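User: structure tokens for this one?
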Amino acid sequence: MQLINIRMTISKKIFLPVQQDLLILNNNLKKMIGAKNPILYAAAEHLFEAGGKRIRPAIVLLISRITNEQKITLNEQRRLAEITEIIHTASLVHDDVVDECNTRRGVKTVHYTFSTKIAVLAGDFLFAQSSWYLANLNNLEVVKTISKVITDFAEGEIRQGTNNFNVKISIDDYIEKSFYKTASLIAASCKGAVMLNCKSKKTQNNFYQYGKHLGLAFQIIDDILDIIGSNKSLGKPAGSDLKNGNLTSPLIFALEENPELYQLVRREFQNNGDIEKAIAIIKETNGLKKAKDLAEEHIQAALHSLTNEYNCQASNTLKLISHYITNRIY
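Assistant:
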């Protein structure tokens, strides 16, 4: 009960310093998609209507304020926060197509609602829109930093796809793939926010490391939730990773303890009840505990990157976000 109360308290307070900024961001996202084709517009709008936690843009807005001498957020940084959410949303559309996922954030996915073709085009369109707004920031270094994320997404998808049902995948392989698919965007957008305040390379790197380790922890917790969570907590059906052959940290750790899992993975969970059996085996091992410990290591690394130089309410909120991420599994 105490853990539930802590989680509720964190959820209420977490975005308080940037609450008004996030309301403006939500309105701007719909204006920014601006597709002339009504079907494409409807598909893109459908994504933003579904909502989401807006953790990524919130972090950008917080870091923008933390590293600004006047503790204000520049218009360019607000736009960067919006670009970050558009890129993230575009990646989700393509992920849902690849994973054949029918629900996301409690609503039907774009490819399920419209078609796979429209979903792919909608994702491409959002990536193109983000590139357009990124170029209009008129900051070449920020453009270079953020645009690499789109390449990283593709790299992550390829690595994941080529390792489907591969029982030889290592934790290092898993972490590298997780960086490309999740942590890269958070790390790059954190760095971009600092760049727009013209801060030193050292400061840029500190916040890049914060974003990187936070992103890795976020992905690990997501993967734990795929084993123990509900559709509500995940925003997509539980067990999706196993079904698609995406071997994540809880399973990789569990494989070390129980060889019975090898048989289930090698036959690609084709028999009735294989997914449920695999989940039961994982829960009986130390796989979940080891995965949570790994997430906690990355949270500590993220917190270590936050120096006392920037001690303020926004900085404390970044720390709160870090703790919120690990508390999602309770």
